[in-house]
Amino acid sequence: MSKPAFGPILYFAIAFALSLYFMFAAVQGDFGLFRRAEILAEADTMRAQLAQVRAEVAQMDNLTQRLSDDYLDLDLLDERARTVLGMVRADEIVIR
Q1: Mean of the pLDDT values across residues 55-59?
Q2: Could you tell me what percentage of the chain is helix, strand and coil, using 3-state DSSP and rounding each to the nearest 5?
Q3: What is the CA radius of gyration of the chain?
């Protein structure tokens, strides 16, 4: 009577299972291809937000500089005062 040869079959099954596990981890794991695509998309979104915030900061810097002691833009000062205080001159007509 000969013994069944399960050694090579068992070895092949374990090797196949491990290769499937590592392929799955390489594609869908925490450091896999899908996660990398998500991170790249997130980075693009954040770059767009950064550009928008930088534009807003530049606009605020411009307004701050125009209302500083060194350079005073009287038109901007008048506009801001009217907006904040909600007042008009006596010779103006307001249409709403």
Answers
A1: 97
A2: 70, 0, 25
A3: 34
